[in-house]
TrEMBL record:
Residues 381-528 form the Thiamine pyrophosphate enzyme TPP-binding domain. Its cofactor is thiamine diphosphate. PROSITE patterns: TPP_ENZYMES. This is Acetolactate synthase large subunit. Transmembrane segments: none annotated. The keyword Transcription regulation does not apply. GO terms for molecular function: acetolactate synthase activity; flavin adenine dinucleotide binding; magnesium ion binding; thiamine pyrophosphate binding.
Length: 539
């Protein structure tokens, strides 16, 4: 057996049935072996950075470890931004990177892959010899699960053809590693119990890290009379609860803002508390803030807290509930507030703008709220446009149905993450929101979407430029023309690459386009020309 075959066997032994990537000299025969001998599905992207994003989207949608492969040198170098996003999100992911022969430092594609991997992915596992190939693959998958996060598995091209000697180190047992959930100290629980008992207007604010703890957090809120809210990434976690305020942060709705402004205690659980969650201090200005997180390094790292507690969200919520006296707070959890929450309409009070250049994005979102399937995976890319769907549409993070890869602030993420999510969860349609500037960084992935055939409706909100930069230039007296670009027929581009597409410029056109595109059973693009003068102040 060749070392490359041993690597393929070990990869499949870890339950891998789908792999994303691009072919090159240093990984092409490994991919061919995975496909031909093992029946693994290979999703070929057009760019290595997008390939890693697809694997990350697949992992976020499925809850499994994503796998992607790139070739040596430039293949790995191009993927740096995507690896950084996955690292900051803590996505379990193994990137199998070919490498140049160690004995050929003058190879044209040679570059220091280990320090690059450590600076981006944060973890590097080399296949050191044919005899250890299976073991090294196992170490990479174990590291991806334990961190969790991306790991670069480095495979020199010449090693792959070497024979595996007798007595090779066997692959480690395939186990589902689950780290123990950290419990808070008794002193921390006692201090939080005291704060909740003394508070008059407490709020429990849950993030993506509390998804598995939703029932425990809800029970604690009912026990202590707190209202509930979530970060954007945990949207919909408490949907249906009469005192669920929805998303807190820069994209909070008016009622949520009004209520949170009165809070005197905010307890975050599994939430990445930062300037956006607190809306730069404007959201709950009079509240003491307690943060509960499994990672001690995250406590107060991006926003000051009055008390930081190291602990799992579910374990902490149960411990506090067990020691806290139940308390009703009718002045906080009032029937009037429950009625306001139930009746709230995100489109109330909006003065819609009409213009010949396109549709008011808020008017388009109102149509989307009525027409899009409730059961969907929602993907929102990075940019000013992302504020509209997150502020005005109800999306749900339950069952991994909401993906917003905002961790690194990189544009160009919407389409590749949507492809990965669509491949991973073909049982429900994907609706992805992307900007024109973002899409133009990776148009080639429209071809990937067409070839894959995943049920993805890509909504391109086109304001003719980089909207965030345009909005920031004007107050400083800088000509926003620097961030504006000529109008392009993105629907025609999509159709030329094999994806059905429609252009939307008004409400009637939006209705007609959705008539044609729904239900989402395969790839489709809506190119929506939105009025550039309607800007999103918070995103």
């Amino acid at each position: 057996m060749r070392a490359g075959e041993a690597i393929a066997d070990a990869i499949v032994a870890h339950g891998v049935d789908t792999i994303f990537g691009l072919l090159g000299d240093a990984n092409m025969f490994l991919v061919a072996d995975l496909v031909q001998r093992h029946g693994v599905r290979f999703v070929a992207a057009r760019n290595e950075n997008a390939a890693v994003m697809m694997a990350d989207g697949w992992a976020r949608a499925t809850g499994r470890c994503g796998v992607v492969t790139v070739t040596q040198g430039p293949g790995l170098a191009v993927a740096g931004a995507a690896l950084t996003i996955a690292r900051q999100a803590g996505t379990p992911l193994v990137l199998i990177a070919g490498d140049t022969p160690p004995g050929d430092p003058l190879h044209v594609q040679s570059f220091p892959q280990q320090p690059f991997a450590l600076a981006t992915a944060g973890a590097f596992v080399p296949v050191v010899a044919p005899a250890t190939a299976a073991r090294d693959v196992g170490l990479a998958f174990r590291a991806a699960a334990e961190r969790p996060g991306p790991v670069v598995l480095d495979v020199p091209i010449d090693l792959q053809d070497e024979p595996v000697p007798a007595g090779a180190v066997p692959a480690p047992a395939v186990v589902a590693y689950r780290p123990a959930s950290p419990a808070p100290t008794d002193a921390a629980v006692a201090e939080l119990v005291g704060l909740l008992a003394a508070a008059r207007r407490p709020v429990l604010l849950a993030g993506r890290g509390a998804e598995a703890a939703a029932d425990d957090v809800r029970r604690l809120a009912d026990w202590c009379g707190a209202v509930l809210a979530t970060t954007v990434l945990a949207a919909g976690l408490f949907a249906g609860h009469p005192y669920h305020l929805g998303v807190a942060g820069g994209l909070a709705r008016p009622l949520t803002r009004r209520v949170l402004a009165e809070a005197d205690l905010v307890v975050t659980l599994g939430a990445g508390l930062n300037r956006w969650t607190a809306d730069h201090g404007a959201l709950f200005p009079g509240a003491r803030v307690v943060a509960v997180d499994v990672d001690a390094r995250a406590l107060g790292a991006r926003w000051p807290v009055d008390l930081g507690i190291v602990g799992d969200a579910a374990v902490t919520a149960r411990a506090v509930t067990a020691r806290l006296e139940p308390r009703e707070r009718p002045e906080w959890r009032s029937a009037a507030l429950a009625a306001q929450i139930a009746e709230a309409d995100p489109f109330d009070g909006i003065a819609f703008v009409e213009g010949s250049a396109g549709i008011d994005p808020r008017a388009f979102m109102r149509i989307c709220a009525r027409r899009l399937p409730a059961r969907r995976t929602t993907v929102v890319g990075v940019g000013q446009f992302g504020g509209w769907p997150n502020l005005l549409l109800d999306s749900s993070a339950v069952d991994r149905a909401f993906i917003a890869p905002w961790e690194f602030g990189s544009i160009g993420v919407g389409l590749p993450y949507a492809v990965g999510a669509g491949v991973g969860r073909p049982d429900r349609p994907v609706v992805a929101f992307e900007g024109d500037g973002s899409l133009l960084t990776g148009l080639g992935e429209l071809d990937t979407l067409a070839r894959v055939g995943a049920p993805v409706l890509l909504v391109v909100l086109d304001d003719g430029g980089y909207g965030a930069e345009v909005r920031k230039f004007a107050p400083r007296g800088v000509d926003p023309a620097l961030a504006r670009f000529p109008a392009r027929d993105l629907a025609a581009v999509a159709r030329s690459l094999g994806v059905p597409a429609w252009t939307v410029t008004d409400e009637a056109g939006a209705e007609a386009a959705l008539d044609a595109a729904l239900p989402v059973t395969g790839p489709a693009v809506l190119h929506v020309r939105v009025l550039p003068e309607v800007t999103q102040e918070r995103f």
